[in-house]
């Protein structure tokens, strides 16, 4: 199916049934905004950016997924289970591990493909991505803010325990028949087990109806929804046992309650990644460590256990040669990132070949790739309170919030870390 837009072809696909290979040709332009695009759809816009790309895909037969969540209410020896973790990654194509350190609980996702003829109509509807009543979202956020204002880890720990227990009872959103969770294993078509959203389809809020009465994604700002940071960092598999030991050591030094703020948001997710020869690929098999935590509405406001979150981030990134996820991590994690990729020069050569004028570059991409122009902004932004938002690693107290008794201090177990610590 072919069409044209100002002389440019619309998306088209040509497939060879004998090989399952499809070539997609796509041409497009960019407009300043949607209104401008609609207004000028049929006009000749020679002054706008045009791109032609060609992508070849390899199709594969349909298959189903078979999932069982194995819960272990004791994380003793997790650091010694590296062989088992590797076996999990090898035996289960889509396996991962959720670790809830404040709850001393580990949940193993045993998730692999099975033939499409296998009986089962399962669906995965991740609980955190389902539409929620605005009043409930606002109440959860209000409780978070209260626990922060009261400096109360107890409130966070009660919430973390309740969220984990209810999530496990509900199969973390797995449904055997597309309606409810009845037990493991849950078997269903890959396209329904891989996708997990739902809240994006919430109905629009009618005029004059308050947000409290509508349904939204939990992070929607209209009902004063959740607001959080996310840190996602690749750690080489050879370092993961030491990382787990460090998390436990941090838990012992600061008390388990210091990690309840992470477990409120589904704990530490550990996903397995394979090595790659790509210029920006990871040179060895690894674990993507992902955790989410509270973010204040005011960027100058520190969070409860601020230092613990920052130390975890720096342990991953600096002590264990971590690399940030390109789309999920805070600004500070990208500082000096180009130096962690030995083939960065080869990547830049390819980039410059296909985009010699830098049309797809920005000051930000230049900064993280180490090719910022003289006088252009760097990656980090050093100013008062910058460490609280992950814009810098503190080197002075002013980067924290000294008037609120948050000062720049070394980490508790990783002495090279510099974190904003509450000092009574």
UniProtKB/TrEMBL annotation:
Signal peptide: none annotated. It comes from the Eukaryota. Residues 269-366 form the D-arabinono-1,4-lactone oxidase C-terminal domain. Its EC number is 1.1.3.8. Residues 384-421 form the L-gulonolactone oxidase 2-like C-terminal domain. InterPro entries: ALO_C (IPR007173), FAD-linked_Oxidoreductases_BP (IPR050432), GULLO2-like_C (IPR055154), GULO_Plant (IPR010030). PANTHER family: GULONOLACTONE OXIDASE, L-GULONOLACTONE OXIDASE 5. This is L-gulonolactone oxidase. The lineage of its organism: Eukaryota, Viridiplantae, Streptophyta, Embryophyta, Bryophyta.
């Amino acid at each position: 199916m072919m069409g044209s837009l100002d002389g440019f072809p619309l998306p088209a696909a040509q497939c060879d049934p004998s090989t399952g290979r499809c070539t997609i040709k796509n041409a497009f332009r960019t407009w300043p905004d949607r209104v401008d695009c609609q207004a000028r759809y049929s006009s000749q816009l020679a002054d706008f950016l045009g791109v032609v790309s060609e992508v070849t895909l390899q199709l594969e037969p349909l298959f189903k997924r078979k999932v069982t969540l194995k819960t272990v209410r004791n994380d003793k020896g997790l650091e010694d289970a590296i062989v088992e973790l590797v076996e999990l990654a090898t035996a289960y194509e889509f396996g991962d591990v959720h670790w809830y350190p404040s709850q001393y609980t580990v949940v193993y996702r045993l998730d692999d493909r099975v033939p499409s003829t296998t009986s089962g109509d399962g669906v995965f509807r991740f609980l955190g991505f389902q539409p929620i009543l605005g009043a409930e979202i606002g109440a959860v956020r209000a409780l978070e803010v209260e626990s922060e204002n009261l400096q109360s880890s107890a409130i966070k720990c009660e919430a973390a325990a309740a969220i984990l227990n209810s999530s496990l009872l509900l199969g973390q959103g797995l449904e055997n028949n597309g309606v409810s969770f009845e037990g493991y294993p849950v078997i269903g078509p890959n396209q329904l087990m891989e996708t997990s959203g739902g809240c994006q389809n919430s109905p629009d809020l009618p005029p004059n109806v308050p947000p409290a009465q509508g349904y939204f994604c939990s992070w929607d700002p209209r009902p004063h929804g959740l607001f959080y940071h996310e840190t996602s960092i690749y750690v080489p598999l050879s370092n993961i046992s030491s990382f787990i030991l460090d998390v436990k050591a941090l838990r012992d030094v600061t008390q388990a309650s210091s990690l309840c703020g992470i477990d409120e948001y589904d704990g530490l997710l550990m996903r397995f990644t394979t090595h790659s020869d790509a210029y920006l690929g990871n040179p060895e098999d690894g674990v993507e460590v992902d955790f989410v935590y509270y973010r204040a509405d005011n960027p100058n406001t520190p969070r409860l256990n601020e230092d613990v979150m920052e130390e975890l981030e720096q342990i991953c990134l600096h002590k264990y040669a971590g690399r940030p996820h390109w789309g999920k991590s805070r600004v500070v994690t990208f500082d000096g990132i180009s130096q962690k990729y030995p083939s960065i020069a080869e990547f830049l050569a390819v980039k410059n070949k296909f985009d010699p004028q830098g049309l797809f570059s920005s000051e930000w991409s230049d900064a993280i790739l180490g090719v910022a122009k003289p006088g252009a902004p760097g990656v980090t932004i050093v100013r008062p309170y910058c460490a609280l938002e992950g814009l810098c690693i503190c080197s002075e107290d002013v980067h924290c919030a000294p008037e609120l008794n948050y000062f720049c201090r070394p980490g508790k177990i990783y002495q090279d870390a510099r974190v904003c610590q509450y000092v009574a």
